[in-house]
Design a protein that fits this description.
The chain folds into 3 domains: 83 residues, Orthogonal Bundle (Arc Repressor Mutant, subunit A); 97 residues, Periplasmic binding protein-like II (D-Maltodextrin-Binding Protein, domain 2, 3-Layer(aba) Sandwich); 114 residues, Periplasmic binding protein-like II (D-Maltodextrin-Binding Protein, domain 2, 3-Layer(aba) Sandwich), CATH 3.40.190. The chain is built from 11 helices and 15 strands. The strands form 4 sheets. Strands 7, 8, 9, 12, 13 and 14 form a 6-stranded mixed beta sheet that branches. Strands 4-3-5-15-6 form a 5-stranded mixed beta sheet, covered by helices on one side. α1 crosses α2, α1 crosses α3 and α5 crosses α10. The C terminus is likely disordered.
Length: 322
């Protein structure tokens, strides 16, 4: 490992807060990371880190070197992007992250189409619920739904995210179709629950257009949207999921939309995040394929009969009394 590589390793240690986490990212032993940082301190002639048994902090010199390392990392990224953009066809490795539900609905098909057009690019598609470190972990593109907290990333909206309340025909035959919020709240529900996020309620707009939350009668909680969808189709209960997760089942009648006169707020935006505006050609081509797939309005909303008029979208949003 040369000195620039050790400087980039110092950036990992600083951003992750420990030798152990930096070692995991680099797939190295912790002792190897410690040895390289000590070697960097020796080469530069300054102490970079204050070490104790419980904590690790940067010295003033360390802070300056980490800033230099980040600039080096950015320069290397731009250099790689420039070199690739001079080529006629994308090449290299494309690393993409998406939440499981979104990755299964969009990521696989986008990857398939992309590989058909650009076989010289190796695609690394990671489906995970955690908020990844886009820059530190080397992601070219991240798909997210909801609020964004990474102010240092470039964000571009892909599509609005609207919820859909659904149940199977058999469930409705047994329980009847709910006509008010009180009835809906009593019905057994399958809800999404993970360490990062819970959707055990229904967000809706009241008669004054104010956002409210209706607690759902959660009988099954799971971190897998596919389990919710399968349970809804099997008649286990109602489900509240993004429209992109259920449009196939709704369009063919296996899941029926419920209480479509109820006004629901937009549930965040599906957003593309990338580390720099000057992106490699492979990333630009992948984004082009994603946008073509999704369309405007999103193809999953267009495939649900009458969806443009459901849940208050066609009327400007009307609340429903409980």
């Amino acid at each position: 490992m040369d000195q620039p590589s050790r400087l980039l390793l110092l950036v990992d240690v600083a951003e992750l807060g420990s030798f152990s986490e930096a070692a995991k990212r680099r797939e190295l032993d912790r002792s190897v990371v410690s040895k390289h940082i000590a070697r960097l301190e020796q080469e530069l002639g300054v102490r970079l880190l204050n070490r104790s048994t419980r904590s690790l902090s940067l010295t003033q010199a360390g802070q300056a070197m980490v800033q230099q390392g980040r600039e080096l990392r950015d320069w290397m990224y731009h250099t790689q992007a420039l070199a690739e953009n001079l080529q006629q066809l994308p090449s290299g490795r494309l690393k993409v992250s998406a939440p499981g539900i979104l990755g299964r609905c969009l990521g696989f098909e986008a990857m398939r189409r992309f590989r058909q057009h650009y076989p010289d690019v190796q695609v690394d598609l990671q489906l995970e619920e955690r908020r990844v470190d886009v820059i530190g972990e080397g992601y070219d593109l991240v798909l997210r739904v909801g609020d964004l907290k990474d102010s240092n990333l470039v964000a571009s909206p892909l599509a609005p995210n609207h919820l859909l309340i659904g149940a199977s025909p058999a469930f409705i035959e047994r329980h009847g179709e709910p006509r008010d919020l009180a009835t809906l709240a009593r019905l057994p529900a399958l809800t999404f629950s993970s360490q990062q996020f819970q959707l055990d309620y229904l967000p809706y707009l009241d008669d004054q257009g104010r956002e409210q939350k209706l607690p759902l009668n959660s009988q099954v909680r799971t971190s897998e949207a596919e389990v919710i969808k399968r349970g809804v189709m099997e008649g286990m209960g109602i489900g509240v999921l993004p429209a992109f997760a259920m449009y196939n089942e709704v369009s063919d009648g296996r899941i029926l939309p419920l209480m479509t006169d109820l006004a629901l707020p937009e549930f965040g935006v599906i957003t593309l995040l990338y580390p720099h505006r000057e992106m490699p050609l492979r990333t630009r081509r992948f984004i082009e394929i994603l946008r073509e797939m999704v369309g405007s309005p999103p193809q999953w909303e267009a495939r649900i009969p009458g969806f443009a008029e459901m849940y208050g979208k066609g009327t400007g949003g009307m609340g429903l009394a409980s």
